[in-house]
Design a protein that fits this description.
This protein is of the alpha+beta class. It is built from eleven helices and nine strands.
Length: 389
Amino acid sequence: MTGTHPLDLFDLDDLVGDEERAIQQTVREVMDKQVRPHVAQWYDEASLPARELAIELGKVGLLGMHLEGYGCAGTSATAYGLACLELEAADAGVRSLVSVQGSLAMFAIWKHGSDDQKEAWLPRMATGEAIGCFGLTEPDAGSDPASMRTRARRDGTDWVLNGSKMWITNGSISDVAVVWAQTDDGIRGFVVPTGTEGFSAPEIKRKLSLRASVTSELVLDDVRLPADAVLPEVTGLRGPLSCLTEARFGIIFGSLGSARDSLETALRYAAERDIFGRSLGSFQLTQAKLADMTLELGKGMLLALHLGRLKDAGRITPTQVSIGKLNNVRESIAIARECRTILGAAGITLEHPVMRHANNLESVLTYEGTSEVHQLVIGQALTGESAFR
């Protein structure tokens, strides 16, 4: 590109600290080395060397990086967000691997687990030696997790779990699953070693989105667990929803990675593509598209950084996370789709990343709360009236 980078127009340097910028650059370099040369093939083959990749990501401290202790890096929330941006600029499937590991499975144990649970799992998860997944969504309980059918009952001092979970990232490769279930005392979380008898995790095939990612069903058939398998520090939906808020924060930044990579690709293509005797980028309609997309990318980045600072200060609310997730994913998928139009027919192939990003964002638009759910969260804050029930 011979022109100005889109985000340079917003002069964001003063909003990012030196350490955060160094972390972001490190993640970009790891993605350039470990992911970008291979991701088109992984996507085409619907595969991901997740266990090997997790070890590499663990070496640079990316897994649970925003958590304190147990071998975790303890970075700022903003640094974690910027890392998510660089991960998703490579591929949303890779960002999902890191997000589910750190912000769902590890965070659940770190926030709500016992000391023994933390010591048993978090150090190994931080290095990538152990992979975790998070079992909340069910075939008939997505946006309404309170209607989950998975149940845990007491049998003596043990717990016995029965039910199923759906659309679970990392499920088939996990060593441990955090599973949420109905009990006589309300919804509780359980730390389930995946080698436990009665537990299985068949992989979901034939996906058109997040193909470079492991997505699974979890099946629990009389899974017997000891009394200390339950997460002791939380009861009710507050537990899983706190984890979802943590993961949604990473998506606020991560989705912008898909948008930025798509826009950079479109800018390069527009500069190199000659049509009617001049560059595609010299036409008014192309420049109008590029200008509008740059505005939305920059506004999304400003929102993300502002929310990052609120989270670092301990002041962010779940409603503000919903604002960020709704806006940034919605605008990012629009940017990826518009960039595809600039690339024309070339945009539908895996020679360029924009269609891959657009397809991945279809999943990101839905998971961790659909756009409609986040609209209703914001609507409830504005009106004081719940539209959910």
